[in-house]
Amino acid sequence: MGIKIITDSVADIPKEIVNKLGIKVLPLTVNFEDGSFKDGIDITKEEFYEKLSRCKKLPTTSQISPGDFIEVFRPLVDDGDYIIAILMSSKLSGTYNSAIAAKDYLKGKNITIIDSKLVTFPQGLLVVEAARMVLKGYGETEIIDKVLYMRENMKCKFIIDDIEYLKKGGRLTPSQALIGKLLNIKPILTMNNGSLIYEDKVRGKKKAIKWVINWIRKNNYNLKETTVGLFHSDNYEFLMDLREEVVKNNDINEIIESKTGAVVGTHAGPGCIAIAFVT
């Protein structure tokens, strides 16, 4: 008997952390024109971005089915474990509802399903903290309360490098995308109540990084008492530029780096970088 932390592949938690903390990750499915692939199992992040760069039509993703959750939940419930599943935003996928359906089917009193209202590594930070608390001996109530607190106090910003993928996804018209490219526009996105939304735009990478540094400074965010997530969609060099400035301008407790996978990669495209932390 124990507490088991479960999440989906959208959380983009580095594999070494997944293995160290005993986190169970269920994959979404990535659908390209030439086939469907289990995220992180049938296709690596490197392979995903290589295929993304060559495809004319953006891939789609399929949610985890209730049956997939039942297959994972049932043996844990039978063993007397308490399950805490922390999943991607229910506004962006039906995965959360699939998990609820699986819980109802199993009549699982010892299953808590949490809508993180986040995606990629902001979601992952919730999962990592929950798994760390399990290893420290905390009970399920304390862990759930901490995750819910973190969810409501998560700050994150995404810098989009290549707006071509916003055009492909229908978020920009062709004329908007053309003007944006000519002006070297870098949109800045954030998460708000489960949705990924536009917040601002600047011209050029350096100004985008400066925008993030000024945002941290203006709000007096204290990074010394929190874990900072830095993550990218196949643009590590750009991420290191951001890391250098963040470290130079702040006292930081811990940094975890991650690479985003199919969901954010599809919509934001290669080149996106982001930062997340709890205040």
Automatic annotation (TrEMBL):
Keywords, comma-separated and alphabetical: Lipid-binding
Q: What is this protein called?
A: EDD domain protein, DegV family
Q: Name one Pfam family in it.
A: DegV
Superkingdom assignment = Bacteria
Q: Does the keyword Hydrolase apply?
A: no
PANTHER family for this protein = DEGV DOMAIN-CONTAINING PROTEIN DR_1986-RELATED, FATTY ACID-BINDING PROTEIN TM_1468
Task: Report the GO molecular function annotations.
Answer: lipid binding
Question: What organism does the record attribute this protein to?
Answer: Maledivibacter halophilus
> InterPro entries recorded for this chain?
DegV, DegV_C, DegV_domain_contain
Q: Does the keyword Kinase apply?
A: no
